């Protein structure tokens, strides 16, 4: 006889016959599953709305030090001894928005060849070899509104790597062969820029909002690239790269006192430029106040759609409420997802976002991808949801969902000290208060349903929406003329592409 204890009850079975044993075994397993596992599952299962979560822990900024050298270089130091690593970044007050329009692409090339072209003391190959031997990195770049140089190093190699980092910043060689290589690679990018319909849409939409000649929408062309010389690189560098136009931040496993001495030794004798004044920002206004525009791509089976208008900046007091509005519109459970994807089945992904910039107006931009024959319906539904945001108050459930999503994602801004340091530097670069992010957090918490409708009415401009479609003209039925009597075609042929192809074949 064998005894089995099931839920406190003693069950006895005879093992006289093998057939009986197989039956009994099956019976016992069934009992165990029924009495134990189903009971446990019933006890554990809860509806997601009944789940209780502990409040998010308070975000704290790690201890850091800020000081300014006599030459104007602003320095942030933040120790972090968790790993034997040190990283640093320098922000430089420069950007492609200040380059000459007839030499578009200059700033980006300066940012690249600063590193790839080596220094006055080390060739590019020597520089690469020294860094590779130490599993270290030094990188440079120049974007639209800021230049940057960075390094990553093991703590034991800090002095050597930091020395090379300073060389790249202070003594770039801008080797001609590396400039030629960069230009060749850029030509390849120009030739391929119409391969991706999403890239076409993003590029052309900026031109429709900011204007063809705006520094916020200009594109590099073969003609502008050909005009760029090594002398242009040197002139651009000499115009912007001075210690009083830089912010240096270092985080990692170092001693702050020793690091301060190293910075003084490497940067202290760099002369500032006393004539530097605050660089004026390019003026911004919306180039097209409405209209429907189209890029014909006959090979496509679906349409890439963007609609929107000029937006604002982060320092607008209403930005937190506008960001919560983004949460109401987007994501699983958002209005756009529920209506255009779930209910109408028009798109796998759809979005609408108020996307500000730090010191110039960003955009309100909405869009997605849909099959060709649903293009007009998708656009009309998207416009309807934008107007609905103005005319229909969000529910308490929508508000709480959007606020919770926004606040829960807030903590990811502080996952590690380097992220925190990066924000401190960025806010100083653009003239924001150091506690800007925490002010934003408080404002999000205080946002109400009335605030959402107020900012939607104030900042969303349905009458100024610009619509861009990249798709197959013959497959879009009903046609785009159902949206507007005039549909303006956009030619995305790369200027000089035929001549360039002929020159490349010689």
Chart the SSEs and their pairings:
Layout: E1 2-6, E2 9-13, H1 18-44, E3 65-68, E4 74-79, E5 85-92, H2 106-116, H3 124-133, E6 137-142, E7 147-154, H4 158-170, H5 176-191, H6 197-210, H7 222-226, H8 230-240, E8 246-252, H9 256-267, E9 291-296, E10 302-310, H10 319-329, H11 335-343, E11 350-355, E12 363-371, H12 375-391, H13 396-410, H14 417-430, H15 436-446, H16 449-459, E13 466-471, E14 487-489, H17 497-505
Parallel strand pairs: 4-8, 9-13, 9-14
Antiparallel strand pairs: 1-2, 3-4, 5-7, 5-8, 6-7, 10-12, 10-13, 11-12
Short structural summary:
The chain has 506 residues and is of the alpha+beta class. 43% of the residues lie in helices and 17% in strands.
């Amino acid at each position: 006889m064998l005894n089995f204890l099931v839920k406190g009850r003693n069950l006895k079975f005879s093992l006289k016959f093998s057939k009986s044993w197989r039956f009994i075994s099956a019976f016992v397993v069934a009992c165990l599953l029924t009495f134990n596992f189903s009971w446990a599952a019933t006890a554990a299962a809860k509806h997601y709305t009944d789940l209780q979560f502990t409040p998010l822990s308070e975000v704290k900024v790690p201890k850091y030090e800020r000081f300014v050298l006599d030459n104007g270089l602003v320095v942030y130091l933040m120790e972090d001894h968790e790993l034997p690593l040190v990283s640093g970044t320098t922000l430089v007050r420069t950007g492609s928005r200040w380059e000459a329009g007839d030499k578009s692409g200059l700033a980006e090339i300066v940012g690249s060849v600063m590193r790839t072209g080596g220094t006055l003391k080390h060739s590019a190959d020597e520089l690469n070899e020294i860094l590779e031997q130490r599993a270290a990195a030094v990188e440079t770049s120049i974007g639209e509104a800021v230049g940057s140089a960075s390094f990553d190093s093991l703590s034991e190699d800090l002095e050597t790597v930091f020395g090379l980092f300073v060389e790249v910043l202070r003594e770039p060689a801008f080797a001609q062969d590396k400039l030629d290589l960069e230009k060749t690679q850029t030509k390849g990018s120009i030739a391929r820029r119409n391969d991706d319909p999403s890239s076409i849409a993003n590029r052309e939409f900026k031109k429709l909002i900011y204007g063809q000649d705006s520094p916020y929408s200009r594109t590099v062309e073969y003609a502008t690239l050909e005009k760029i010389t090594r002398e242009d690189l040197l002139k651009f560098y000499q115009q912007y790269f001075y210690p009083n136009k830089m912010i240096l931040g270092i985080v990692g496993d170092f001693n702050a006192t020793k690091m301060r001495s190293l910075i003084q030794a490497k940067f202290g004798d760099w002369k500032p430029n006393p004539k530097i004044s605050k660089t004026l920002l390019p003026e911004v206004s919306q180039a097209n106040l409405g209209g429907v525009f189209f890029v014909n791509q006959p090979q496509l089976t679906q349409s890439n759609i963007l609609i929107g208008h000029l937006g604002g900046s982060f320092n607008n007091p209403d930005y937190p409420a506008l960001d919560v509005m983004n949460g109401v519109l987007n994501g699983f459970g958002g209005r756009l997802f529920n209506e255009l994807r779930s209910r109408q089945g028009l798109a796998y992904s759809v979005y609408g976002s108020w996307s500000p910039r730090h010191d110039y107006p960003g955009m309100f931009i909405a869009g997605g991808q849909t099959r060709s024959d649903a293009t007009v319906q998708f656009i009309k539904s998207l416009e309807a949801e934008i107007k609905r945001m103005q005319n229909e108050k969000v529910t308490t459930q929508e508000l709480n969902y959007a606020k919770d999503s926004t606040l829960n994602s807030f903590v990811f801004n502080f996952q590690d000290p380097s992220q925190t340091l990066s924000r401190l530097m960025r806010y100083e670069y653009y003239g924001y208060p150091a506690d800007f992010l925490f002010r934003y957090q408080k404002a999000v918490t205080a946002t109400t349903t009335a605030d959402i409708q107020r900012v939607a009415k104030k900042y969303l401009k349905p009458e100024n929406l610009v619509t861009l479609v990249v798709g197959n003209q013959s497959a879009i039925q009903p046609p785009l003329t159902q949206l507007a009597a005039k549909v303006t075609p956009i030619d995305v042929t790369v200027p000089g592409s035929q001549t360039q192809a002929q020159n490349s074949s010689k």
